[in-house]
Write a structure and sequence with these properties.
Keywords: Lyase, Schiff base. The protein is an alpha/beta fold. The chain has helices at 18-31, 36-48, 61-72, 77-83, 100-106, 128-141, 152-156, 160-174, 191-203, 222-239, 254-268, 285-298, and strands spanning 50-53, 92-95, 114-117, 145-149, 178-182, 208-210, 244-246, 280-282. Helix 2 packs across helix 11 (254-268), helix 6 (128-141) runs parallel beside helix 8 (160-174) and helix 9 (191-203) runs parallel beside helix 10 (222-239). The structure holds glyceraldehyde-3-phosphate.
Length: 310
């Protein structure tokens, strides 16, 4: 994404109405239901949008290899056959930088890209030069997508041009890799700040804007997501550029998957339900989707532990 020059007039006076946003978010899932067969199709679609993630201090190459095996084949053969599907894969596998090479090797030939968090994930509190070096390392290791974190202080104190410069430098360091800007919305205090940070991240050239690291006290929510997708819409109107969206953190169930797909379809249209413009950052949601699809095809539920991720 090329982005635009820094232009605070696109967001400075913008006001987000908290109660209207919450009301709209609440009605998204109550006004519209997805019927049975369509539900299975939507869940299969959701799988293709998952950035299957492991971001734990005790990650090991073998855990990453197991996750990659799941990414190659997210559903059991019998469920695939019953759904009439012959190929399905997740959007990407997302890991820490030192795990990238292991993931790249395990995914060879599958077409599944490797995403890496970088820039001092999750807090980002280290010098910019080191954060940029970390991007270079992740890309050298084979990451074709990089999930960066922003300096929350800049958003909390209204230093929007500093935020723009930081993100633009990260965008440049990513080179050909796609960049997702994690706003850590749970740290940003107001939906107004979420909207402004979204706009700045897009002006600075982000390919995706992403809600959360999964490590904040409050992760992806529908009101925050609604605020961000409206910023996406406004940015498209103003710049003609199309940016993707990635809710992440705490999204765990098949029901969540449907709720976010409805949000994208209703606010932005079907185009934004495909994995070049929409991803879920999730470590465990695939297990619940597989369980629901198994129920759809067999009429029985299996234990959740039969759908381990890694
Ligand atoms: O970006 C992805 C998140 O770290 C995953 O969060 P989760 O473990 O709550 O699914």
């Amino acid at each position: 994404m090329t982005g635009t020059r820094f232009d605070p007039s696109w967001f400075e006076a913008h006001h987000v109405n908290l109660s209207a946003t919450e009301r709209r978010a609440a009605t998204l899932t109550t006004r519209r239901t997805v019927k049975k067969d369509w539900q299975a199709a939507w869940l299969a679609q959701a799988i293709t949008c998952i950035d299957l993630t492991t971001l734990a201090g005790d990650d090991t190459p073998s855990r990453v290899q197991r996750l990659c095996a799941k990414a190659r084949q997210p559903l059991r053969d019998d469920i695939m056959a019953a759904l009439g599907l012959d190929a399905l894969r997740v959007g990407a596998v997302c890991v820490y930088p030192t795990m990238v090479a292991h993931a790249v090797k395990a995914l060879e030939g599958s077409g599944v890209p490797v995403a890496s968090v970088a820039t001092g994930f999750p807090a980002g509190l280290m010098p910019l030069s080191l954060r940029l070096a970390e991007i270079n390392y992740a890309v050298d290791q084979g990451a074709s997508e990089v999930d960066i974190v922003i300096t929350r202080e800049y958003a909390l104190t209204g230093q929007w041009s500093k935020l723009y410069d930081e993100i633009a430098a990260m965008r440049e360091a990513c080179g050909p890799a796609h960049m997702k800007a994690i706003l850590a919305t749970g740290d940003l205090q107001t939906l107004g700040n979420v909207y402004k940070a979204s706009m700045v991240a897009m002006q600075a050239g982000s390919d995706f804007i992403k809600t959360s690291t999964g490590k904040e006290g409050l992760n992806a929510t529908l009101p925050v997501s609604l605020t961000m997708v409206r910023a996406l819409r406004d940015f498209r109107e103003k710049s003609g550029q199309i940016v993707g969206f990635k809710p992440a953190g705490g999204i765990k169930s098949a029901k969540d998957a449907i709720a976010w797909l409805i949000l994208m379809k209703e606010e932005l249209g079907t185009r934004w339900t495909r994995n070049d413009l929409f991803r879920f950052g999730a470590s465990s949601m695939l297990g619940d989707i597989e369980r629901q699809l198994e129920h759809h095809v067999t009429g029985r539920y299996s234990a959740a532990n039969r759908h381990a991720m890694a």
